[in-house]
Amino acid sequence: MTQRFTKIAVPVALTLFSGAAQAVNVAVNGDLETGDLTGWTTFDNNGTIAVTSAQNNTPGGAFSLNLNATVPNIGDPASFPVAKNANVGIGTVAANSPVTISFDLFGSLTGAGGVVFAEFFSELDGGGVSKTEILGGGPIFPTGTWTPYSFTTSTGPDVSGGVTLQLKADCGANPGCTVDAYFDNIVIDGTAVPVPAAVWLFGSGLIGLVGVARRKLKAA
User: Fold this and answer.
1) Exposure of 200 in the CB half-sphere (CA atoms within 13 A)
2) Dist CA 23 CA 183 (whole Å)
3) Which of 16, 84, 111, 181 has the CB geometry, 3.0–4.6 Å to 107, for a possible disulfide?
């Protein structure tokens, strides 16, 4: 019985102690392998948004997120489709803590004025933000090769509404512009909310009991 308790209690206690500052991926459907837009909030804005298998990112799976912006002629409306992994990690991601956002990007630009933006928001409960950032400080440009991107930043002072990653293909109102961008393997690695003090005390108690159990086992 003592041996059984020890085998169970040690891993549980160590898990509690190691959970204080762990990274946690809060992206929803970041690999797009549902084959649809589950977990994503989208705004077409005179463009198109789809989950597609047209560009296979081996070994990233069969599907990717496609944002297509196009302005064929002078006078056509601005085109800037947006997809958001919105308000994720509520109660899970810590404020004022490191976060790494990564994804793979593939695609093409035609004409003038086309860009891609990745933006990160620390959200307030009920609306508004405590921090907003254009990742990389400016636009990124897709090419005909799947390219990994990684950005390390920090959350704002209040993430009661979680965090949001916004991806945008943007032609503005530039005639002759087309942006055809594909995203895959989207990860939002935030710092997990610290384990409450009461749980730490529970973990220390477990380790103490493990020590007592082991001493009794040796004395037997």
Assistant:
1) 8
2) 22
3) 181
